[in-house]
Amino acid sequence: MKQKDDNKHDKPLKPNDKSSKVVPMGIMFVVLCGFSFYLGGIFCSEKDRFTSTRDVAKSVESPRKSVSTPVQVKTVSFPQCSADYQDYTPCTDPKRWMKYGRHRLTFMERHCPPAFDRKECLVPPPDGYKEPIRWPKSKKECWYRNVPYDWINKQKSNQHWLRKEGEKFYFPGGGTMFPNGVSAYVDLMQNLIPGMKDGTIRTAIDTGCGVASWGGDLLDRGILTVSLAPRDNHEAQVQFALERGIPAILGIISTQRLPFPSNSFDMAHCSRCLIPWTEFGGIYLLEVHRILRPGGFWVLSGPPVNYENRWRGWNTTVEEQKSDYEKLQELLTSMCFKLYNKKDDIAVWQKSTDNNCYKQLDTPDNYPPKCDDGTEPDSAWYTPLRPCVVVPDPKNKKSSLKAIAKWPERLHVAPERVADVRGGSDGAFNHDDSKWKSRVKHYKKLLPALGTNKIRNVMDMNTVYGGLAAALVEDPLWVMNVVSSYASNTLPVVFDRGLIGTFHDWCEAFSTYPRTYDLLHVDGLFTTESHRCDMKYVLLEMDRILRPNGYVIIRESSYFVDAIATIAKGMKWGCHKESTEYDIETEKVLICQKKLWYSKQSS
Q1: What CA–CA distances, in Å, run from 128 to 131, 427, 598?
Q2: What is the pTM assigned to this prediction?
Q3: Which residue, 315, 225, 313, is CA-closest to 269?
Q4: pLDDT (tens digit per residue) in 535-559
Q5: Alpha carbon distance 589, 498 (integer Å)
Q6: What's the number of CA atoms in the CB half-sphere (13 Å) around residue 228?
Q7: Kind of pairing, strands 457-460 and 346-351?
Q8: Hey, is 460 helix, strand or coil?
Q9: Among 34, 147, 211, 535, which is most buried by a count of CB atoms within 10 Å?
C-alpha cells in the first residue's frame, strides 16, 4: 500500500526528463521497422513454401494421375482365427455385451472393438461347410452345416419358420402371424395396399424379420426388402436370410438412428416383431416415420391389432390391448399418419403427403414436437434418436410415393434429390448410368460367373448413384449399395431409383455375419479412404464377409493394385490383374476369388 501511495504523489516530469525519453523512442522505431522487414521476408518465403506444398498435394491427391511410385507392402500370411470365431461379428459381438447397458437393449447396437483388439486372422467356416445352394432353390432350403443353429429349429418349429431334415434346413414360409404361409399373408396385404401390385411400392424394410420369409416372398412380386434383425446368441436370423439369398442386415432400433437416409423406403413392416412402439414417447415409431417416404405405408400385424379376437392368446386382458391400440392410433395421428386399411390381423397406416399436417407440431406443449435442433434428417451414422418428428422437406415435391415414377421406370429417371448432391445434376446422373452399363459389360468378360446363378448376394462397397446395381438389375442377384459416411450423401438417390443400401464407415466392420456375400465390388475405395482406414483391415473385413469361392472386383488406381494383390495372397485369395474397359495404365481391375479352406481344428 505504501508503494502505491508513493507512486500516486510523484512529481511531474521536468523538461529535461521529457527530452531524455525521446532517444529510447527513436531506437524503438528503428527496431520495429527492421523487425517488420524481417517478418516480410519470412512471409514471402513461407508463401512460396505453401504454394509449392499445394502443388505437391495436387500431384498426390489422385494417385490415378501419377503412379510413378506405387505402394509396396511386404509379403504377409495371415493365421487362422480359432474355430469359435466362425460366426464372429466384430461390432455386434455377444462376448462384449456385458460391457454395455441393458436399457432399451443398447448392448445390441454397434460397439466396435478398440484398435488394439482388432483381429488379424482369417475367420474359418464351420466344420463341414459346403458351397451354398444356388438361387432360386436357396430360397426354400440351405445346408445345415453352413448355419448350424439348432435352437431356432427347436423353438420355432411349431410356427413353421424352418425345419431340419437330414443335412438341410427347409423354409416352408410359415411365421408367427402367417400360419397359412407367407404367400397367403402377402396376398391379403396386397388386397389392402393395391400399390404393391402395380410398381408403386418398390422398396421395403422388415423390422424383426425372422428368417426373412416376408422379404423373400416380396422378391417374386418385384419388391426389394431390407430385412433387419439384431445379432443374437441363438437365432442368427440375418445369417439365415443371407444364406437363402435374401437381402438382410444386422440392426436394431434402440438409441441410434438406423443407417438409412430420411424419406427412403416405400413401405415398412412389423409382424409381431415385439418392438414396444408406444414406449419411450414413441421414439421407435418416430424413426420409422423418418425413413419412410411421404405417402409410404407402415404395416403392423400382431398385438394390439385385432385385439378383440386375439387377446386371449397374448397373456393379457382385452382392456390392456384396447388401451395399447388407442395409444398407438393417437401416436400415429400425431405424426401425420392416417389409418389406410385394416382387415383381420393386419393394419395399414399411410404417412401424409400434405405438409400442412405438420403445422400442428408448432402448437406449444404439443408432443411429439417438430425436430428443430439442426440435426440433418439424413444424418444416420451413430446419430442418436431424438423424440421429435422429422418433417419432410417441402421443396422435394417429386419424392413422395404418389409423385415418384413407378418401378421399373424410376430406375433410370434422374431423381429430384440428385440436385442435393454436391456436383449432382440430371446430366451427371445420366452419365453415371451410361458409364456403368459399359463397365458391367466389361466385367462380365473378365468374370463370366457374373450374371449367372453362381453370384446372388452382391455388395457395391462404395457406390455413388447405384450404377452397378442398376446395370445388373436383369440378373438373378441383388445388390447392397454402401455409401461411405464420409462421402457425399448420395444414398437418397439410390433409394429413389428403387434400389436399397446403407451408410457405413469402412474403417469399421460391416453389420453382417461372416460368409454372406458372393461378390464384393470396390471402385477407388483405397484411393479415397486409405488416409483414414488401414488397407489391411479393410481387406480382412472383406474376407470375413465373403463366401468361400466368392469373388471380388477391385477397380483401383495402379498406385494401390499391387499392394492389394500382395495382401490378398496372404488371405488365400487368387487374383489376376486386368485392364479397364478404357485400357489406361493409371487404373486397373483386380479380379480375385477366395479359396475354400477349413479350420485346422476342424474334424
Answers
A1: 10, 51, 8
A2: 0.88
A3: 225
A4: 999 999 999 999 999 999 999 999 9
A5: 28
A6: 24
A7: unpaired
A8: strand
A9: 211
